[in-house]
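Example record

The entry below shows one chain as it appears in the dataset: sequence first, then structure tokens.
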Amino acid sequence: MTNPIEGVIAYPVTPFTADGEQVDTGSLAGLVEQLVATGSHAIAPLGSTGESAYLTEAEFDLVVDVTVNVVDGRVPVIVGASDLTTANTIRRARHAQRAGADALMILPVSYWKLTDREIARHYAAVGAAVDLPIMAYNNPATSGIDMSPELLVQMFDDVDNLLMVKESTGDLTRMQRIKELSGGALPFYNGSNPLVLDALTEGASGWCTAAPNLRPQPCLDLYAAVRVGDRELAEKIYDDLAPLLRFIVAGGLPTTVKAGLELQGTGVGDPRPPLLPLDDDGRRELDAILACA
């Protein structure tokens, strides 16, 4: 990958039919089209926001296929190919490559806490199985595994196609350390919504976020303001966005984003159990946040 992916990387939810039994491909296509049309710089299906852990393999493949077909090369598609086993992570990664995805995002997931040696072997095996660039995704809140900056930079050196890192711990010093250890060669991406202003200012190549599902333009404006060095404008936009960013993280991205879309007139079904729809108090709070936008 000669040119790293940059900008606002939008994470769509996965819509389900009213009974929750199937992926609603029509709604998915409409949601992805809206994210592209409103200016997102890349689309990343099947992350935590996309409920990838709760999909069958057939559903996973379907979401990949629909997303790639709708985007149709207009922006990069980064597919979240994570799974519990190395073998099925490779299966998912290979399907994404065949479908025409541009990159993979991989989170190390395990019932047992993995050692650094096991994590490195996992990424090396996936990297050897596909040709796509890989974004290593560090999110111990969901995976239970925390990859140190030292490990991430070492894998960047050892795995030819591990070329990016998404850092979601909310710790700015992690990004600073990645930049220091790699001499600025390893692009890092912010995956912690409340940290976005500081992360972009520190030099993050992009912002991985579900917020464009609900408020796309301020997300783009914030990124642009930081890139041109207008700190005053960036702070103003961030202050406006911050209540939404904090709310969707605290309440769980699939649950809150799906509720927000419904409040805005775009029903995409409920999250899949064990996740539950947003409760009445949460819906009132979210409605008030969106109404103030």
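Notes for this example: The chain is about 50% helix and 10% strand. Residues 231-251 form the longest helix (21 residues).
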